[in-house]
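Notes taken during the Thursday session

The instructor put the following on the board and asked us to keep it in front of us for the whole hour. The protein is 1-aminocyclopropane-1-carboxylate deaminase. We were told not to look anything up and to reason only from what is written here. First, the residues (351 in total):
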Amino acid sequence: MCWLNFITLNSVAPIKNLHQISDAGAGKGLMQLHPTRDTELIVCGMANTLLEGKAFPSPVLSNGSVTPAILVHGIFKALREQGHKIRLHCYQLGLDSVPDFHGCELDEVITHYCKVGEEAELVEQTLIPELRRQQLNGEEHLIAESGIGGTTFATLWLQRWIDNNLWFAGSTKDKKKLALKRAAINELLEKTEHLPLEANAYTDNTEYSDPVQRACCALLESDLDKVNFAGGAMIFAPIIAMQKTTRVKEVSVATTRWVLDAEDSKTVAKALPDNCELRIPKVKFHQSDFHAIRMYEDGYVVEGCGLGACLEFAERHGLQDSDLVASLDKAVAPWYEKKNECNENHQYESL
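Then, after some discussion, the predicted structure tokens were revealed:
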């Protein structure tokens, strides 16, 4: 029996009027709920937390695709059928929302909380000892992030450490939102131009970093033997910023193929330190029965919730492409069947 400990760092970046910059989340006043609802989708296969008193359990996105959280849910179900045990560790970094894991389909779920600015303390007191326990017991882990607005701060850091022309759009292609995002980054660049090129100069100020960056840097300051990250630009940034001061012996980061389709992402990947292994899954979604999943291959959704790392983990543990895609199809099928059923009922009622 193999235990996989899936650790998700949930947060919202400190950006004023974030709903005007990001397409993720549910809009003004509701952005904090997005990471929580995605974690519920991973654990339960549906989002339980209400939005303004109303239930919106579906993983279907406005562009017709599905959130990567439901695909992670499908992968975990396939791994459990293979004999794995899945334990999810939910780290609510500065989030007030309490996840509702009613209908949990994993083996165990543990939730931790901290206030904004206290991420390092939570990591040092809770996560690092837990990772040591897992290593002693031969358990495996993946450390993912589920954040809103994090690419803004990842772009800030990567422009500082690598090239000031680097750009990461994140969740939106809207020109107005991208213009506002660029303005926010330019303001941050002006405020931080006096800072030395040291990670702690940014993590010491909650205006110059986001909770995920601060948590990752605290992890990289530890003397753990190995840390396995899951994610794209938001994870690349702290690894690169900490490369001269990290005490972790080995670091791995896994992400999707689509992240590296962008030239700027390829540039950043080349800048990862020598002790960091980059892992990419091979599976392709073209054979899916659902257009909503095939849309990933066209770049409608690039990364999220550790999807790339979960796919790569499943591949390393023997799941074939056909099995993986079938698990994704099973995860989303009920939602499209429900949608079709509702459409049919509506057509019937209007006859």
